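Researcher: Please generate the 3D structure of the following complex. Treat every line as part of one assembly.
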Amino acid sequence: MELIKAQRGTQDMLPSQAGKWQAVESVMRSEAEISGFREIRTPVFEDTRLFQRSVGETTDVVQKEMYTFEDKGGRSITLKPEGTAGAVRAYLEHGLFNEPMPVKVYYITPCYRYERAQAGRLREFHQFGVEMFGSALPVADAGLIAFAHSLFERLCVKNLTLKINSIGCPSCRKQYAEALKAYFTQNKDRLCETCLSRLDRNPMRILDCKSPECAEVAKDAPHILDYLCDDCRSHFEEVKDLLDSIGIEYEVDPTIVRGLDYYTRTVFEFVSNDLGAQSTVCGGGRYDGLVEEMGGAKTPALGFALGIERLLLVMEAQKVQFPEEEPCELYIASIGNAARKKAFQLVQRLRECAVEAACDEMDRSLNAQMKYAGKIGAKFTLVLGDDELASGKGVIKNMKTGEKKDIDLNDNFEEQFAAISSEAEDFGDLKF
Ligand code: ATP
Ligand code: MG
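Model: Done. Output below.
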């Protein structure tokens, strides 16, 4: 029979990869909590209009990449292409604005985009994201960037360039849009279909087009930084000054506009020098107009999202040492049914004390059991046969040193084993 394969652009996370995912996720969670973010989980699917309204009608995500379908009740449903829209919806729906400001949330979520699948570009991928509502101050922008920066440090990721830009507010963008429109109109014949349609509606989107021809034209386009109003300019200066004051290096890159419509003022990206084309690991910025646009009160806000698959690609390319998975503490081998029963009972008692233990579940010979114990990396072994059952005594063997210690099988087995294993504890190289 034909085997059904996973869908293009999706990946299985196999047990051999689980340790890496769990390690990075646990660093993300602990760093987020240290910075005052609390977890939020929102549904994988939402009303399609949520993304049209927030991400923006003229973005690549909405125009080309959404997984949209009609459900059995005739509603238009979309699988979340990003995490901010759902977080803002939940913030408004549940009145989180009544909590002390700023309200800070984080999430780890799958996202869905119908894209051309390639390394670092998937149709189902995962984001770690944070959102912060209520603060208009540059300390919030700089704090968010510093948070992402320290997260990468904690994960031992090197060789990233932080690029920042300001894309202003609706008032300074109006003039800029005019200048862009004039420039792109002059170069109309070199733009792709989609960008031609953006010319009137949202010329800034052309700067983010992935088509090589459009990117070439965009190179000489006017820069937003030359059009910032006084307020936006001084906000940007303050953000840079705060970053300087804590020694975070950055490049001002006036070509960064980000792929989603809701951004205002500060935008930033962390770009890896170890990845090919898909090199942006993390992107974010301020979105002061979004909450109001979604039906809430005027609320300054900002956030970022980090692609976990891309992060792991960078970490693998840099050969970052992941914490090793905990191996089996004790494998209890047995000869015969009575001994297997005893091994079973002892294993259950160890597991109740949260000690990873195992016994034969395959009816293997003693020889094969010991080979198996080696394969799973058991730190200690114990062999039970008729003699051990009769005497109630066994021998714990340290598989690394070969050292042997007697153990009483019927009296405080767990405590005796705990003493033996903690005595042998060695603390290997410290990892992240
Ligand atoms: P790109 O320019 O690479 O298309 P983007 O601007 O669409 O990225 P965002 O919407 O800002 O990306 O998403 C934030 C992060 O999520 C990206 O920096 C990236 O790490 C990750 N990401 C986005 N799309 C994908 C995808 N299709 N596959 C894997 N990771 C992705
Ligand atoms: Mg994209």
